[in-house]
Write a structure and sequence with these properties.
The chain has about 280 residues and is an alpha/beta fold. It has 5 helices and 5 strands. It has one domain: ATP synthase, F1 complex, gamma subunit (Pyruvate Kinase, Chain: A, domain 1), CATH 3.40.1380. Helix 2 links the parallel strand 1 and strand 2. Helix 4 packs across helix 5. The radius of gyration is 28 Å and the shape is elongated.
């Protein structure tokens, strides 16, 4: 009987777990719809702003503005921004980012790191001691004003510390079941290889450096914001998929345990019948 009781308790436990994972799946699905709307609305503006600043770079190859000029110091360090989630239970979402970060740091050991997301910080801090800043709980509300500290910090570090370049590793949202790991250079801004841009020369007002400064700053703001929106949507998609798989696995486990429970009950009943029959036969003798 203890075995039957243990199986029954296990079934109840798995059933409670299934309720939790199913609820988490529904919450993630709701957040995913909102995140998808945000990223769909943000992409056109971000893409065109990127097109504009890269066109400026293409038309002004001799500009000396630091945001558009490569650092010629071969010993200059790199700055890497890593975006992960603050919570787990989202499949391989974080582990894939951490794996890519590990490969990056092995190739470029002289790299300073900024972590956006608690899960990434917890793991990357074991890989390197060069984490110079960290940001948590930014994905809860997803407010554009909240990322201004990040973009301001990244720009100041790049302009004042002589970094060779600034790269970002993040998850790009494709669908609920597909996220792509992206490693992208955001500073210095590089021109397109084959730009489909107008050949008309630009006139700058008030002057070229001021326009580049304002446009470049806005580009970094919007680009990091877009990446965070991508990461947020990818996280919810990964969590929804992971919780859906967990719910299905819990259902299969309940079915298996129920079958085992029924067999154990049948065995117990059969044993009792045999014992009763044997006892009655012994009395008759």
């Amino acid at each position: 009987m203890s075995n039957i009781r243990d199986i029954k308790n296990r079934i109840d436990s798995v059933r409670n777990t299934r309720q939790i994972t199913n609820a988490m799946k529904m919450v993630a699905a709701s957040k995913l719809r909102k995140a998808q709307d945000r990223i769909v609305n943000a992409r056109p503006y971000a893409d065109y702003l990127e097109f504009m600043i890269r066109s400026v770079k293409y038309k002004n190859p001799d500009t000396e503005h630091p945001m558009l000029t490569e650092n010629q110091d071969k010993n200059a360090k790199r700055l890497l921004v890593v975006m992960t989630s603050d919570r787990g239970l989202c499949g391989s979402f974080n582990s894939n980012i951490i794996r890519s970060t590990k490969v990056y740091l092995e190739k470029h050991p002289d790299t300073d790191v900024i972590c956006i997301g608690r899960k990434g910080y917890e793991q990357i801090s074991k890989l390197t001691s060069s984490i110079i800043d960290k940001y948590f709980n930014l994905f809860n509300e997803m407010n554009f004003n909240d990322i201004k500290d990040i973009t301001k910090g990244v720009l100041n570090l790049y302009l004042n510390n002589g970094y060779a370049r600034v790269d970002v590793i993040y998850n790009e949202f494709k669908s609920a079941i597909q996220q792509n790991i992206i490693e992208k250079q955001i500073l210095p801004i590089i021109p397109p290889e084959s730009p489909a841009i107008s050949q008309v020369d630009y006139l700058y007002e008030p002057d070229e450096n001021t326009v580049i400064e304002e446009l470049g700053t806005k580009y970094i703001d919007v680009e990091i914001w877009r990446m965070m929106l991508e990461s947020s949507a990818a996280e919810q998609g990964a969590r929804m998929t992971a919780m859906d798989n967990a719910t299905e696995n819990a259902t299969e486990l309940i079915d298996s345990l129920t079958l085992l429970h029924n067999r154990a009950r049948q065995a117990a009943i059969t044993t009792e019948i045999i014992e009763i029959a044997s006892g009655a036969e012994a009395i008759n003798e």
